[in-house]
Specification:
Elements lengths: L1 E2 L4 H4 L6 E2 L12 E4 L4 H14 L2 E4 L12 E5 L2 E5 L6 H14 L2 H21 L7 H14 L3 H11 L4 E6 L5 E6 L5 E6 L1
Parallel strand pairs: 1-2, 3-4
Antiparallel strand pairs: 5-6, 7-8, 8-9
Helix pairs in contact: 4-5, 4-6, 5-6
Amino acid sequence: MIAPWVHPLIAGLPVAILERAYRTGEASAFQLVIACTDDRLVNRQVFCDAENAGVWVNSADDPDNCSFILPAVARQGDLTLTISTNGQSPAMAMWLRRRFESEFDERYDQLMELLVEVRAEVRDVLGTSEIQGWNEALDAGVFELVAAGRTNAARKILRTSLGLDVPTCVDAEAGVAEVAVLRASGRPSLKANA
């Protein structure tokens, strides 16, 4: 860290600190640079030096002098949501992050687990999971079913939307409805429903 003055709380952190002004060209000695001065000329110099050296640089509150941005991040289990205003309003990005964080709870983890399970099955059966039907299934209320604790019903909608279970015929005269299900693998199975 290079700064002419360092707050005592930061000075106590386990980082190398050089208490002095930035020197032209020294950004090239780093792999990643964050310029957070209140002097736009210094930020511009740091940006130019870093760019010339192929070093990534972020200038806080100065998006014109950034080669990358720092989005606000909300996490829930394996789900990560990033929010960016392209440096235009960090306050809005943080506000949105707080709103989304309050929405993300274990329901999203449960949905993720179900999607991972069904995706693995789709890959095993079809050789790929890049197929039509995912959005339609999610739009058909899969999340709401998982949130209500009805994971099996959600799984059925997913499997049907993705072509894993496709009813092909019904024999109602037998007294028991038998539905032949043609699995996407081409192997039929017979399910009897009373």
